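ARCHIVE RECORD
Type: protein–small molecule complex
Small molecule: D-serine
Source of inputs: curated submission
Record status: active
Notes field left blank by submitter.
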Amino acid sequence: MAFRYGSGMNDAWKALLETDSEIAELIVAEERRERDKIRLIPSENYVSHAVLAATGSILTNKYSEGYPGRRYYEGQQLIDPIEEMATSRARELFGAEHANVQPYSGTPCNLAVYLAFLQPGDTVMGIELSHGGHLSHGHNVSATGIWFRPVRYGVSRETGLIDFDEARDVAKKERPKLIWAGGTALPRTIDFEAFAEIAKEVDAIFAADIAHIAGLIAGGAHPSPIPFADVVTTTTHKTLRGPRGAMFMSKSEHANKMDRAVFPGLQGGPHNHTTAGIAVALKEASQPEFKDYAKQTVANAKVLAEELMARGFDLVSGGTDNHLILIDLEGKGVTGKPAAKALDRAGIELNFNTVPFDPRKPADPSGIRIGTPAVTSRGMREPEMKKIAEWMDRVVAAPENEDSIAATAAEIAEFCRAFPPPGISVAD
Ligand code: DSN
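STRUCTURE (tokenized, with ligand):
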């Protein structure tokens, strides 16, 4: 093989190399790619070796339809305590009355909320997709917008902040049965209490989707929706730094309905290897260092935002309170997609993204979306954010200058070597 492998070269890896060297080589190439680039996609991170070990374990062999103590397969002596450990750690970390770690990912988890509380055709209210929302909050192309009746609120054109007057007016007029807070491109603190008040006024279920900010909440760097929301859903792989999966937390009164919506309503057997990975990630997130991580993620985002604004970048809402920055590139004379592709060639991976009131289509929108969870996991701090802003500025100013892009990519690969990411083993 044309590579050396570090601490991760165990029997499993040797077997993979022997059995399927094509897949093994692609995985190693991806490890190098993740190591040598600056990962600014705000929904991505680097899991630890411990999380990887649990996620890649023999727990993938076991079926466990049902819940601990109430399964439809025998042989659950060890699966039950693993799942109970995951749910009790989730409850403790977030202060929740009930938790369920079985949802396969974010959208299936959100679908469970619909199945638990709504009938087809009922009204759901969420933030407009181009204002930072999520497909599963009632967007037209999602089952949630096809099988339910979506109504929307948005952000103010002037401030880029959620317009709570509009949200209240829409809720009073349309009487949604379910109100979502949260999304995928919201750079500011979410006022969960304000959403809960609106939901109460119209007698709606209030669901908070904290997929992006779960790790910040766990680490005390963002207010928690737990006291205010009927149900809180989240993926486990973003700021929370666990394996690709999801979980929900709820008030006890909704526990049975929600559990039944996940199984047997929407899913079969839980992915026990993922459950174990989530349990490990939740243990990591309960350590004091994770609080430092969450605070540094926000501190890094603030510095990156300031540095970009100092270079003439137009940030939606004029900055950030969390891990995420949304940039309107109109003033830079380039659209989101070519800018994102040039930055990727230069070694900075991010999303092209719509911005609120975007005149362009999602396939080539006006903006880009970046975030600091992954770079913070590899130990980058304020001085590194300044360098990243300089590189971004250089590439966005000349997205077709391939010589400059290649030179930047080489600089970035060298720079990245000083910040080894968690969970990466490739040694050359
Ligand atoms: N795909 C997620 C994100 O990138 O924000 C949302 O589901």
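CURATOR ANNOTATION: The pocket of D-serine is lined by residues 43, 106, 134, 184 (CB under 6 Å).
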